[in-house]
Amino acid sequence: MASDACFNACCCSSLASKHSTLRPPPAACCHEFAAATASSLVPAPNTQFTNHESLPPCAQMFSRFRHVYPHYCKTNSADEIRAREYYNLAGSNRVCLDYIGHGLFSYSQQQGNHHLTEDIASTSACPPPAAAAGGGGGQFFDILYKPVSLNSQLLYGGTESGLEASIRKRIIKYMNISEDDYSVVFTANQSSAFRLLADAYPFQATNTLLTVYDYQNEAVEAMVESSRARGARVLSAEFSWPNLKVNSRKLRKMVVSKGTGSSSKRKRGLFVFPLQSRVTGTRYSYQWMNLAHDNGWHVLLDASALGAKDMETLGLSLFQPHFLICSFFKVFGENPSGFCCLFVKKSSIPELEKSPTSIGIISLVPASPDNKESSSSSSSSSPVSVQENSRFLGTKEEEEEEEKKQLSLWEFLKLEKVIESRRLKNAMAAGAEEITECRGLDHADKLGLVLISNRARYLVNWLVNALLSLRHPRSENGGVSLVQIYGPKVRFDRGPAIAFNVFDWKGQKVPPALAQKLADRQNISVSCAFLNHIGFSDMYDEDKRKAVEIILVGDNKKRGTSSSGISVITVSLGLLTNFEDMYRLWSFVSRFLDADFVEKERWRYMALNQTTLEL
Length: 615
What we know:
Elements: H1 4-19, H2 27-38, H3 58-68, H4 76-85, H5 88-92, E1 95-96, E2 102-105, H6 107-110, H7 129-132, E3 141-145, H8 150-156, H9 162-174, E4 182-187, H10 190-200, E5 208-211, H11 218-229, E6 233-236, E7 239-240, E8 245-246, H12 248-255, E9 269-274, H13 287-294, E10 297-302, E11 323-331, E12 338-345, E13 362-366, H14 386-389, H15 395-404, H16 409-430, H17 439-447, H18 449-468, E14 471-472, E15 480-481, E16 483-486, E17 497-502, H19 512-521, E18 524-525, E19 527-531, E20 534-535, H20 542-549, E21 553-554, H21 556-559, E22 564-572, H22 579-590, H23 597-609
Parallel strand pairs: 1-18, 2-11, 5-6, 5-9, 7-20, 9-10, 10-11
Antiparallel strand pairs: 3-13, 4-12, 7-8, 11-12, 14-15, 16-17, 17-22, 19-22, 21-22
Helix pairs in contact: 1-2, 10-11, 18-22
């Protein structure tokens, strides 16, 4: 068992390092942490499981888990908040491991149970009768698209409702950003934020876009598409197989400017950098931002994959990205609709160009009283529908709606902007004084960075160790591994995300989409992703390389390159994730040790639904 002194030292060292020299925790502590994790399974350390029926019960595993990680008990306040404010998770018996971003509100808040306070004891944290029966179902806000370009929004702003002003200020505080230094633009989603910036970025003067992603990101793809259309040269970091660490030598060569000076007055382009992979959990050095800045790059920090309160470790006084993007969703465990925020450093605004693009910039307005559902989901970047607009129009506007059908697409979009502008002004006037508390952000603030990061560290490393303990009972050397994990394994400083695949006893990969579908039927939500930009060392064994390339899938059709990648299952842990969530996922994955599991599930589905399950 790891000593209390070791864990305290590691936690303090990790936090301090991010604020100062960014040194990793001591090697001795990391080694002791890894050794403790290896002993976290029962009945004995490094136990291997070859039958899903042989897994110890959850209570027994949790007892061992708490013994190995004694500081986990100090994170009980997260469990209390989950039981009190997010009782939907227990009521639906749902495991949510597919949320990326930050939750604004709580489920209790959504249901209108404002009488529940932080002082309620966890022993009385049962949902009120009204809430259990359906509750209030508040939607908090509606989204309206604004007919304005990014440049105009940043330069001139616009009228905002009291609700939007309240949420904007709360997010700025939560993100540890100074309102004096940065302007904020609300966008419909992450793709909108990336595309809007790409359309306004001065690629004529700085013609390079350099990204650092070990997976295919739809939002980044939107930026790449727009940047290429504007004449930019697109470069990508490479990630070394099999640990998927960034190839520092190649990335440094792309970042560092040529010449004798250590910096360049000429801006070289846009450097798009996430501090960690939201798919593999790989973390990258903060110093890449400094290196890029010193060599004449504009820096876009993608903070969407950061955990709650991670921005407190950034120290924007030391690392001042020109742009920052982060996603927010409404309620954890519910429809993940929400919005994205694009932060632009005020000193960088004059460098942006005028752009005709306006699709994606939004306003937050009070939810319509006759509309329980949000008028627009952040999962789509298309304008609010005509049918929804008609409720806000008078007789003249209704006639305009009929005329739309006869207009060209361009005329339709222009008229849509006029109608949205009219609707926006009406909504602003109706809800000018409305203010909403962001209880989801409040919970993160209450728990704090150290508690949240420690809790995630214990859980994610236990899950990695548990997944690797599952082996097919086939060979003399202890069996073939059921699970292959891509990226970091058990590591003190890994991020709270895991990318993996399941393989049958023949060594054939189970399609991630199929595994995701079967998990969903067990009320476990996971995601699928596509790892790419994978590179092999020149010293990598040729036979091993050929074996790996069998599971790599060419990405030529979409990207027009010879790059390759691999589809994976990915899970993400949040501040409300608990041990039972980890155990249930582990238990589900272990079912694939049964060679007939998929076929049994097919027949079970057919028996229950009288239809065929497509595999």
